[in-house]
Design goal:
Blueprint lengths: L13 E4 L7 H16 L2 H11 L4 E6 L2 E10 L4 H5 L7 E9 L8 H15 L4 E6 L2 H9 L3 E8 L2 E9 L1
Parallel strand pairs: 4-5
Antiparallel strand pairs: 1-2, 2-3, 3-4, 5-7, 6-7
Helix pairs in contact: 1-2
Length: 167
């Protein structure tokens, strides 16, 4: 673990697409399995395949060239029934796989991840970001970043909080 000064705002993360730093694939898959493996329990090798397939949408955050966090940002596809009845649905991105290594939590890195996701969504012409959180204690962090709870959802058998935020 790196040592930090009390000036947390000075610790800026660098974001790189996983496709451009595949040497971090095993670590990202391990993070994902350790954090969310209880949902499907398919193992690190399965996660490596999933993350490799979406490596252009997954970002690794580094600090001093050390990976400390990740997230994924996808185009959100609205249900076709909504598209048929609407003049114009917003262009949305889906934020997922938000993870900060346990040794680097509570240092403002989640805020930097959300800021980067918003920046990337704006560049892609998106109007908003949608996200599900499996952990109710993270809802407040997302609300501080401008997210609003929309409804309850489910990820397989697990309850989630569906949220939206402007970009």
């Amino acid at each position: 673990m790196l040592f930090f000064s009390s000036a947390v705002g000075q610790h800026r993360l660098t974001f790189t697409k996983l496709a451009d730093c595949m040497e971090h694939l095993l670590l990202a898959a391990t993070w994902a399995e350790d954090e969310w493996g209880y949902i499907r329990n398919k193992g690190v090798e399965f996660r490596k395949g999933v993350l490799s397939d979406m490596s252009n949408q997954v970002y690794i955050a580094t600090l001093a060239n050390q990976p400390v966090a990740m997230f994924a940002l996808f185009d959100h596809e609205f249900d076709p029934r909504l598209q048929a009845g609407s003049q114009r649905l917003p262009h949305a991105r889906q934020l997922s796989y938000v993870y900060v290594d346990k040794d680097y939590r509570n240092l403002g890195f989640a805020r930097q991840i959300v800021d980067e996701a918003k920046r990337l969504a704006r560049l892609a012409g998106a109007d908003l970001i949608l996200l599900d959180t499996l952990k109710p204690n993270l809802t407040h962090m997302y609300e501080k970043q401008g997210a609003v709870a929309v409804c309850e959802g489910r990820l397989f058998t697990e309850p989630t909080e569906l949220m939206r935020m402007g970009v």
